[in-house]
Design goal:
Blueprint (H helix, E strand, L loop, with lengths): L3 H15 L1 H12 L6 H13 L5 H33 L1 H28 L8 H10 L4 H26 L3 H35 L1
Length: about 200
C-alpha cells in the first residue's frame, strides 16, 4: 500500500512547479479528511521560503486562508449533509440524536477550546471536531474565531519548522510526525479512561 511518505517527494516536485495553488488545494482537502500530507508540504514550503523561492508573507497568508477555508467547507458540508442523512434515515436518527444533543451541550461549554486545540497541537482530531461542530450547528462565529486562532498556530508552527531547519526539515518533520502520533494515542487513552471512570460512577 502506498503511503503519503512515498508520494511526498513527487508532491514536492509538483509544488515547486505549480506553486501556492497546489499547496492551498492539499490543505483544503486535508481539512476535509483527505490525507494529502499538507503539514509536510507546509514544512517544505517554509524551507523553500528560507531558500528564497517563496515570499514568506504571501506563503503564510495562503496557508492560513486555505486552512480556514478548508475548516469552514467541512463545517458547512456536514451541517447540511448530516441533517440530510438524519432526515433520510429515521432509524439512524433515533440512535444518534441523544448523543448529538450531548455533544451539542458539550460544545456550548467547551467548543471554543476544543476547536482551537484540535487545530494545534491535536490536529489529528480536527476532522471529527469539524463534523460534530457542523452536525450540532455550533455557532459559526465561535467556530470561525477558534479556527483562526488554532490554524494560525498550525501555520506558524509548520512553516516555522521548515524555515528554521531549512534542508533538514524532512528529518524534523519525520520526528514530529512520530511524536504527534504518540500524543494522539495518549489523548485517546485519557479520553477512554475518563469515559470509563464516568460510566463506573454513574453505575454506582
Amino acid at each position: 500500500m502506498i503511503s503519503i511518505n512515498d508520494l511526498l517527494p513527487q508532491l514536492i516536485v509538483y509544488f515547486r512547479e505549480y506553486g501556492l495553488w497546489l499547496l492551498s488545494i492539499t490543505i483544503i482537502l486535508q481539512c476535509n479528511g483527505v490525507p494529502t500530507g499538507a503539514n509536510f508540504l507546509a514544512m517544505a514550503a517554509g524551507a523553500f521560503a528560507y531558500a528564497g523561492e517563496f515570499n514568506m508573507i504571501a506563503l503564510g497568508t495562503t496557508v492560513l486562508a486555505s486552512n480556514i477555508a478548508g475548516d469552514l467547507s467541512c463545517y458547512y458540508i456536514w451541517k447540511h449533509l448530516g441533517d440530510w442523512i438524519l432526515r433520510r434515515f429515521p432509524s439512524l436518527r433515533r440512535h444518534v440524536e441523544t448523543g448529538l444533543d450531548k455533544v451539542g451541550t458539550s460544545f456550548d461549554r467547551y467548543g471554543f477550546p476544543t476547536v482551537v486545540f484540535t487545530r494545534f497541537p491535536l490536529s489529528a482530531f480536527a476532522l471529527v471536531t469539524n463534523i460534530l461542530a457542523g452536525m450540532t450547528v455550533y455557532e459559526l462565529y465561535r467556530f470561525l474565531a477558534a479556527v483562526i486562532i488554532g490554524e494560525f498556530m498550525w501555520s506558524a508552527f509548520n512553516l516555522g519548522i521548515g524555515y528554521w531547519f531549512g534542508d533538514s526539515w524532512q528529518t524534523m518533520g519525520s520526528f514530529l510526525s512520530k511524536f504527534s502520533t504518540w500524543i494522539m494515542l495518549v489523548t485517546v487513552l485519557l479520553i477512554v479512561f475518563y469515559l470509563a471512570v464516568k460510566q463506573v460512577k454513574k453505575g454506582r
